[in-house]
Each structure stands twice: as structure tokens, then as C-alpha cells.
Amino acid sequence: MQQPKAVVIGSGVAGLAGAIRLAVMGYSVDVFERNAYAGGKLAYFEKDGFAFDAGPSLFTQPQNIEELFAFAGEPITDYFQYEQVPLSCNYFFENGKRVQAWTDAERLADELQAQLGEDRSNVLNYLHKSEQLYTNIGNIFLNYSLHKRSTWLQKPVLKALQTVRMPHLLGTLHEFNRSSFRTAEAVQLFDRFATYNGSNPYQTPGMMSLIPHLELNEGTFYPKAGMISITNALVKLAQKKGVRIHYSTPVERIIHNEGKIRGVVVDNENVFADVVLSNADVYFTYQQLLNDPLETRKVLKQERSCSGMIFYWGINREFPELHLHNIFFSKNYAAEFQTLFQQKRLYNDPTVYVNITSKMEEGLAPKGKENWFLLINAPSNVGQNWEQLRITLRQQVIDKLSRILQADIASAIETEEYLDPIRIEERTGSFMGSLYGTSSNSKMAAFLRHPNFSKKIEGLYFCSGSVHPGGGIPLCFKSAKIATELIQQNHLKQVHH
Questions:
Q1: What is the DSSP secondary structure assignment for residue 43, as one 8-state letter?
Q2: What's 181's DSSP letter?
Q3: pLDDT tens for residues 215-260?
């Protein structure tokens, strides 16, 4: 019997993980990547002796990558190493309060009571609920296709649906947090988890209170040599499994006829395949590769997640009060999200996230210096003047950090690079520069996300942050798993028919 062929479009985390799984399942796999490098948003660059991870900076749920290596039958330690980080994040508030968020529930509860006056039992209670919600509901939402009837008929699913309490479904995350905590700072700290998938805590459902579980209960981790080591490990594993990765080779079109996939067009040539797995943004897959205006418009109906303005700063000194992850909150969170999502503008007192990997290992910045990756939430691109916005924002960020850290930040910046929503779209193919595909701002968002398979074209599948179950590294691993398991089930059906 002939070996079945699979084409994967794009080599982001989900594309690489999907390619590896297909190769292990017995497919002959070709990955076509339009950039000269793999990883999509999970890229890397060096400048003036400073090393920067270009995109995602938080590593949680290492079991996703471990499971992939186990599935491939390879020892992960030969490819990839990571360590647990006991401190998940340092939080700085405009009123001078500071919180160290430990990934140990008791220690975190003590910290919030000491620094904010938040009752420690509120914290323990919240984390316990978060864990229950993740275990019962999150596992189903994130590990199965929501678009297959068979998912909903499984016993554990029916049982889990009975555990959902109404506030999680009816209220917003902010309302849920406000009813859980007494202090404004604790509410703001837990509201922030909505931004993990580019959503607005004042709109996204209370169900999102399961996100803190991943970071605060399960833990925060750091991959040795930075986030790029995830991409490098996946590329190495893919090659070991016989996957062929073609760089600087964009797919021009997906070929299908009579409702069946036939392959793709690359360099004006047909590459035939039994299965096509698109790791490209689902919007561009329909718009450019399938030329399907109807489906393109359907995708557009959903609100895009927010984007980001990213600064990469080589800093000429060290800041002992900062750690791997740091957050400097805005004074008025509600106004910030209102501005970002309703007015599609940048807020004049932004929340600033600072990631510093040189805190974790030497060699990523010159001695006595630090590599700062700054992410500021920004609206997706609808034609704003990003050049002007960046200049204004840069000054606001410098003023804010200088004020809170009581240091002259401007004179500490030795070298600089940036990404704005336009560059994000150009480099990563994310429509409108949105970092997480569609937002989760509506009650039905999880169900409205595009499924991992095409209902119209047999043999066409999707895995990326722009489809189910959503954006972020853990979900991209899950997206690849869901899509390839569907491929396996459907292929077996065909063989038996």
C-alpha cells in the first residue's frame, strides 16, 4: 500500500507539532514555510550582544511538549531542557504596592495578605475553584473538538457540564473576580489573565478564571536557552522523523475538487497530498489559499484579539528588583480596555509587561546588562498611524518605568528594536496583527472559533492560534493534537471502507 502524503502549511509551533504527529502516524510529510526560519511567532534575533526571543515569553504546561516527544518515542532531554520558576511574576501598582506572585498557593496567599491586605482564604478559595474549573471544563474545551457530536456524548463531558456554576457562564471575568476578592489590586491582578488570549476581562466570560490555574497552580517554567529552544527542539525532532521542511517556500493555493483535497500549489507546481493541514491564519487560508470570499467573511464576523506593541531594549545596567516576568499596571484598567477594544486606540497609561531572560541564564546579555522584552497591549490594526503611536507610547513607557523604578530608563537603553501590528502581520501572517486570532470576548467564543477541520472539503484540517482551542503555546500544541487525531480517525474510516 502506498504511503499517504500530508502537506503542512506553515512551521509555527502547531504546524511543527502536527507534522511530527503525522510522520509518526505513517504519513510522508512536507512542511512549506514562507519565512526563511521556522517557529512563526516563536522566533529569535540578536543585536549588539543582546539575545531576544521575538514572540511568546511565557512557558507553561510543559506536559504538552513532553507528550509530543513520548508520542514520537524520543527522549526529550536530548532535545530540550527546562526548569520550574517558583516566582511567576512581579507586579507593580501605581499606588506603590508590589506583589511577588509565587506559584505556591499558600505562599501566594500570604503575600497578597501581607502586601494588599487581601484575605488569604479568598486567594486559596479562588485557586481551588480555578483548578476545579480547569479539571472539569477546561480539559474538554481544550483537548477535544467542540464541533463533533461525539465529543458531547462522552460520559465525562456530560458530568463536567453539570459542574459549571452560573457565574462562570453568565457574568464576566471581572465580575467574577470582583465577587471573589476584597481589594482592587487583587481584582486587577486576576483580571489580567484575560490578556493571555488577547481578551478583555470586562467582556470575556467568568469561565476564563480557569487560566490562573495553569500559571499559579501548575507552575511557570523556563526553557534553557530561552523560548527559541522550543522551536529548535521541534525542528530537530521533525527532521529526525523524516519531515521535510521547505523554507522561503510559500504555498500559493490549496487544490481541491469535488469536495476533496488534492494538494497545494508551490512555485507554480502542483504538490499532491491526501491531507492538507493549514497552520496559517484561518483568515488568510480562506482568503488567499482557497479564494473563498464567503468563508472569509464568516471568519471576519468574529472580533479579532488584541495585538501588541513590542520593544526590545538592551539595558546597560541591572535591576535587582525585577525578575523573569514583570507587570507594571495602569491606574485605570477599565479605561485601558475600553480604549483598546472599543476605540481601537492605545491607552495613555498602558500596562507594561517586561520579560528579562538574562535573569535566568548568562550569555543572553553582556555582563552587568539585561535584555528587556516589553509587550504593551495594542488594538489590532485598522489603519492607525503606528509610527506616531509608537513614538508617543515609547515615551509613556519610559516615563512610567522611570517613575515606578525610580531610575532614568531612557539613558539605560543601549540598543533597540520593535514590532508593531503591521510588522506582526507581515512576519507571522496574523491577520490585522492580532496575536491570538479571534478574541474570547463573547460567551460563545469557544464555539465560534473555527473548528480543526473543514466541513466542506474532505482532507483539509487546521491547527493554529486562529482556530480551536485558541492562541498561546500550550493551545497550539493541543490544536495540533486535535487536528491530527481527527485525521487519523477519518483516514482509518477510509481504509476500512
A1: -
A2: -
A3: 999 999 999 999 999 999 999 999 999 999 999 999 999 999 999 9
